[in-house]
Amino acid sequence: MPADYNGTWEMESNENFEAYMVALDIDFATRKIAKHLKQTKEFIQDGNNFKTKTLSTFRNYDLNFTVGVEFEEHTKGLDNRVVKTLVTWDGDKLVCIQKGEKNNRGWKHWIEGDKLHLVRTVCWSSRGIWDP
């Protein structure tokens, strides 16, 4: 049985996030605001079905997916692109590959102790850690 991601997590740190946004060609003003935000991440998991929300005072983002099923994701409010997204399990880690305009794009989530970790990729990594 894969890991249980159900819960609400508060961001504790956010390393290299601005570099990640630069790689996605996110405009200067948005980057300056976004890098100072403390986000909350909510997971509702039913087996391989996930409903996620990333919440902040600036912008919210909902992402619903089924592990192993590719879907078209509209990154509205983020970098406003359309990507083909596939999330899979790697042990207890959720691994996402997003195919589209930007190469090597995706993310990886895992739980270690009482912390939710996230590494985002697009040509290089950006790390974020959330507390429950």
What does this structure look like?
By secondary structure, the chain is mainly beta. It has one domain (7-121): Lipocalin. Helices cover 11% and strands 55% of the residues. The protein contains 2 helices and 10 strands; from the N terminus they run E-H-H-E-E-E-E-E-E-E-E-E. The chain has helices at 17-23, 28-34, and strands spanning 7-15, 40-46, 49-55, 61-66, 71-74, 82-90, 93-99, 105-112, 115-122, 125-131. The chain has a 10-stranded antiparallel beta sheet with strand order 4-3-2-1-10-9-8-7-6-5. Strand 2 (40-46) and strand 3 (49-55) form a beta hairpin. The radius of gyration is 14 Å and the shape is globular. The model has no long low-confidence stretch (mean pLDDT 90).
Brief summary of the model shown:
This is Retinol binding protein 2. With 132 residues, this protein is mainly β.
Tag the structure with descriptive keywords:
molecular carrier activity, mainly beta, 132 residues, 10 strands, ILBP, Retinol binding protein 2, Lipocalin, 11% helix, globular, Calycin, lipid binding
Fold blueprint:
Layout: E1 7-15, H1 17-23, H2 28-34, E2 40-46, E3 49-55, E4 61-66, E5 71-74, E6 82-90, E7 93-99, E8 105-112, E9 115-122, E10 125-131
Antiparallel strand pairs: 1-2, 1-10, 2-3, 3-4, 5-6, 6-7, 7-8, 8-9, 9-10
Structural class: mainly beta
**Number of DSSP E strands:** 10
Q: Stretches where pLDDT falls below 50 for ≥5 residues?
A: none
Instruction: Tell me which CATH architecture applies here.
Output: Beta Barrel
Please state the CA-atom Rg, rounded to the nearest Å: 14 Å
Quaternary assembly: single chain
Please give the order of strands in the largest beta sheet: 4-3-2-1-10-9-8-7-6-5
For the record, give the distance between the C-alpha atoms at the N and C termini, rounded to a whole number: 21 Å
Mean pLDDT: 90
Describe the global form. Answer: globular
Order of helices and strands: EHHEEEEEEEEE
Query: In which range does the helix fraction lie?
Result: 10-25%
The level 1 CATH classification is Mainly Beta
- Main sheet attributes: strand count, strand direction, barrel closure: 10 strands, antiparallel
Number of domains: 1
CATH superfamily: Calycin beta-barrel core domain
Strand content: over 45%
Domain Cytosolic fatty-acid binding proteins: 7-24
Keywords: Transport
Organism: Crocodylus porosus (Saltwater crocodile)
Family: Belongs to the calycin superfamily. Fatty-acid binding protein (FABP) family.
